[in-house]
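Crossover junction endodeoxyribonuclease RuvC: structure, please.
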Amino acid sequence: MRVLGIDPGLTRCGVGVVDVRPDRSATLVHLGVVRSPVDAPVAERLVVIARGIRAVLAEHAPDVVAVERVFAQQNRSTVMGTAQAAGIALLVAAEAGLPTATHTPSEVKAAITGYGSAEKLQVQTMVARVLRLDELPKPADAADALALALCHAWRGAPSVPARGEALTPAQRAWAEAEKRAGSRGAVAR
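Here you go.
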């Protein structure tokens, strides 16, 4: 399954595409950010975001689109811009005839790290491990988009764990990394 994850934002809209196999292993396909000029009118900025998402859809042909669900923040202008960008992402996906899903940040963190209040660095570290990347995915908006895509694939894919296997793919990757670290010390958390 190919999943496009979108971390909506009016200034920086993270996009990440992953291929996830039935065994839930994943491969990075695309990582990027759609940027809109901060001094442009909101309507023009939304057009830029829509154009960028359409380009990713056309180039990478995902099967499904996962968007971060907007939740209340203290800064009203930030939440408004995020909500507007999320709406554009959902609209563009629907126009392309793609199924969509939304996930909260805590759902994504729990799926990726096993802990719903994980720090951004923990999420980036796990995304890098799961995708077997040599370095942390950057910028953070794009890393969050990859985490969204992985979360959706893992939550949406049928799960029949082997006997005694109750860990998520991210938790298994973390445990394997800790084993490899062995005498070198524990994995930084």
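Notes: Residues 76-95 form the longest helix (20 residues).
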